[in-house]
Amino acid sequence: QCADVYQLDLRLARGFAGFEQVACDCGGVVQGLKEMRLCFCPIGRLTLGGLKPLAGIEALEISGSKLCNLWTTAGALRGLRLSKVNFQSSLSAHRIEGDQLSATPAHLVGEIPRNDEQSSVSASDVEGSLSGYESSDPLNETWSEGYDSDLVSGADSDATSEDTDEQTLREELYSYRRYRGDELFISEDGSASPICYRPKYREFFIAQLGASLKYLDGVPVTEEERLSCFQALRPRYELKPYGRSRAEPIQKLLAFRAHGAGKVVNAPRKCADKRGFRQAIGAALVGDIVRPHLKLICSSHYKPRQFEYNSYIADHVVVGCTDGEVLVFDTNRSRPLARTQFSESASPRNGRAVLGVRWFNKEPWKFAAGAADGRIGLYDVGHARSDSVWRSCAGYGFSRLTSLDVNSEDRLLMASGYTKDMDCIDLETQRVVRTFSHCHEKHINVLRFTHHSPHLFASSSFDKYAKLWDLRDRDFRAIYSRKSVHGNVMLCFSRDDKYMLVSAVDNEVRQYHAADGTLDRIFDMNRTFSKDNYTRSYYMNGRDYIISGSCEESTVRLYNANTGGELREFALDESHLLKSIEPTKKTYCQSLRGNPFEDFSFSVLLTSILGDESQNQMFSVRMTRTADDEPISEPV
Q1: Quick one: pLDDT at residue 477?
Q2: What's the burial of 472, exposed, middle or buried (CB within 10 Å: 0-12/13-18/19+)?
Q3: Averaged pLDDT for residues 255-273
Q4: Tell me: the pLDDT tens digits for 589-621?
Q5: What is the DSSP string of 530-582?
Q6: How many Å apart are CA 615 and CA 303, to the nearest integer?
Q7: What percentage of the chain has pLDDT greater than the value 90?
Q8: Nearest partner of 425 among 368, 345, 477, judged by Cα
Q9: Are the CB atoms for 482 and 442 separated by under 8 Å?
Q10: Residue 8: is its pLDDT beyond 50?
Q11: How many CA atoms lie within 13 A of 3 on its CB side?
């Protein structure tokens, strides 16, 4: 049996047992090794540095592993120039296509990839999540036509056995792949690693590993496949930022920019165009980096719970803490510029947690913060004083605040709690000027004003609806309502108010045209089949990309907001990245925001759990730099 390891790092491992063909002391340099097989080895990550001793190897099999991240796995293997790679036992070319899928036995699917601590899902939960698609949505009509409902219709909704749940999930995943029109290459013996279930998995590795790859999972790579793989990947993946086929050298881009004439190579705009030049430089800097640079901004000592970037002052972030403290951090120097505490109250400790923070727009040195018990404070940090309280507002009749926001004119503040109502507060008089009752069927999670209209705002709730409202409407009826399959967790507007991004439970993210609520696209993200996997998504690089994270995953995903293609998938729980977190702890993404002043940069609030204890830490992530101890693989 293979040792239980999390990463395959041959620089550190000694006497690593379990090779079927080769047993070696990995503490030294491996010489003459041409083929290595790690069968049913619980490896969760591959690193380029860890595989460096295997330079010169020609064939590698890692079947039955826990590998699930396409980007980090391809980045690690790219430097080895392998001719044969197996993530499952060799196939006899099981090509499972859309019209053949319904007749394919379910046992071919193997085991669905899932998180180590994933909660069990009943058959009734699966049926309920699929039945929520509405026929009024054009994309949902496509789902209904392509989905084979017979596969789950016969499942017993009262069944509670683990085997029944697993079988139902296999069938539902199979039907989902049929709807998407994917080809699956899955072994019959259950040796397939979770990575094999990713959409376009075969085409992805053919494109990423280059011309040296001759066999993948025992199936020859044909020239036809090699030529067509990039076109096949285009709807789902973005191998280079902004859809470029290759990243130009920065020196070349700067030369074009300096001359101010001619087009930037491989870019749609001239160098004189600031947007086109910025995109070209960003694509060149990001390149093939799959492990970004992380920097600790706010340690667990401050107990961060919520944060928000200042859109007008660079490197300023307001942080709300679980003990009721409010901080303004300098992200560049990783230290607080100002700090204050909510006024003392008889509220219990969990009632003092600051759950909502929001900067003002016309006076960007001021912000609002709200505690869980309903109290709201207004602050001025223009002079970075420790006693920076500007003035405070009392509670507003609701308990357990969930969200607050300030309109574009800094005159009104909207707040919501664990009720179906919303309060509109005049910031000059500090009074509630209007209460909107029964806006949703369940409590409201988030409300957000648009960036340019002081009267329009949107709300989202676990009742599955996202609604747009106009304060000028005396009857206060929603302009439109849009329904998700699962309960809505988060929504936000793009900076130009063109789009509204709605995030629902378990990686269901939709983008709508804000003007009329027309569905623009659904981002194709992997599901965990957990009803507690609360997902939050935000815009980055203006509105060019979105970043998405969930509270039961350590993974952050980046998608092109205009094409829906996946740019990267980062696993932020790796010990070589998070040196301040013990590797034995489970790490999850609590919240995240895009940096409004730096492209391909964002911050993330990570929660690490060990037993009954948990701690929050805030990190900045820069995709334009690689992790300190991780070399960049040579691009293909």
Answers
A1: 92
A2: exposed
A3: 54
A4: 999 999 999 999 999 999 988 777 888 999 999
A5: -TT--EEEEEETTTTEEEEEETT--EEEEEETTT--EEEEEETT-TTT-TTS-
A6: 7
A7: 38
A8: 368
A9: no
A10: no
A11: 10
SS (H, E, C) 439-475: CCCCCEEEEEECCCCCCEEEEEECCCEEEEEECCCCC
Q: What is the DSSP string of 260-301?
A: T-SBPTT-SSBTTSHHHHHHHHHHHHHTT--SEEEEEEE-GG
CA distances from 109 to 113, 118, 197, 524, 543 (A): 11, 19, 9, 20, 37
Distance CA(381)–CA(385), nearest Å, equals 6
What would the two tokens of residue 539 be? 């815009």
- For helices 162-180 and 123-131, the axis angle rounded to 10 degrees is 30
Burial of 306-340, coded b for 16+ CB within 10 Å and e otherwise, reads bbbbbeeeebbbbbbbbebbbbbbbbeeeebbbbb
Contact at 8 Å (CB) between 88 and 192? yes
How many other CB atoms sit within 10 Å of the CB of residue 251? 9
Average pLDDT, the chain: 75
Residue 379, token pair as written in the block: 């602050």
The answer to whether 426 and 411 are in contact (CB under 8 A) is: yes
**Contact at 8 Å (CB) between 63 and 191?**
yes
Q: What is the model's pLDDT at position 27?
A: 38
Strands (E), 372-498: 376-380, 389-393, 401-406, 412-417, 422-426, 431-436, 444-449, 456-461, 465-470, 480-483, 488-493
In angstroms, the CA 218 to CA 93 distance is 8
Q: What amino acid is encoded at 416 in this protein?
A: S
Tokens of 584: 């034995």
Residue with tokens 């460096």: 52
Amino acid at 240: K
The 3-state secondary structure of 152-217 reads: HHCCCCCCCCHHHHHHHHHHHHHHHHHHHCCCECCCCCCCCCHHHHCCCHHHHHHHHHHHHCCEEC
Contact predicate 14/27, CB 8 Å: yes
- CA–CA dist 16, 10 (Å, integer): 9
- Tokens encoding 446: 């988030």
Counting other chains too, the contacts that 248-251 makes at CB distance below 8 Å and 24 or more residues apart are: 248/280, 248/283, 248/284, 249/284, 250/281, 250/284, 250/285
